[in-house]
Write a structure and sequence with these properties.
Alpha-Beta Plaits; 4-stranded antiparallel sheet
Length: about 130
């Protein structure tokens, strides 16, 4: 699963296998979060959560942020797509990610939007 998340992260860094090599600095922290909504059929809740996630880009330690829903890719045994919304962030270091975790904007996001989800799974990757 972590391998798949890393490959997913490469897509968001501008990787284009036909014209360039993807480079992510060693030590970069890739922070991937998956949300299962309390009301998964609510378009309003999905939209609200995605809007809330955008506010986290205001934290200077966040180098890049993208959010979305499961892609309509070919169904395969290894694909997990039962989540509702996901975000991916990049940080320069563990220290920057720690600052993010305690940042007032992140804490406000949790307080304001936390009632929208009933499950959260986080994968943090340190790039070699």
């Amino acid at each position: 699963m972590k391998k798949h998340i890393f490959l997913f992260a490469l897509l968001f860094t501008g990787y284009n296998g036909f014209t360039q090599e993807a480079t992510i600095a060693p030590g970069t922290i890739v922070h991937q979060v998956f949300f299962w909504l309390e009301h998964p059929d609510s378009m309003e809740d999905k939209a609200a959560l995605k809007e809330g996630l955008k506010t986290l880009a205001g934290i200077s330690e966040v180098q890049m942020l993208a959010a979305g829903e499961p892609a309509s890719t070919m169904e395969r045994e290894v694909i997990v797509s039962d989540w509702d919304v996901s975000e991916i962030m990049f940080f320069r270091s563990v220290e920057d990610q720690d600052i993010y975790q305690n940042h007032p904007l992140h804490q406000a996001f949790i307080k304001e939007y936390g009632q929208l989800w009933n499950k959260v799974v986080v994968y943090d990757i340190c790039v070699d």
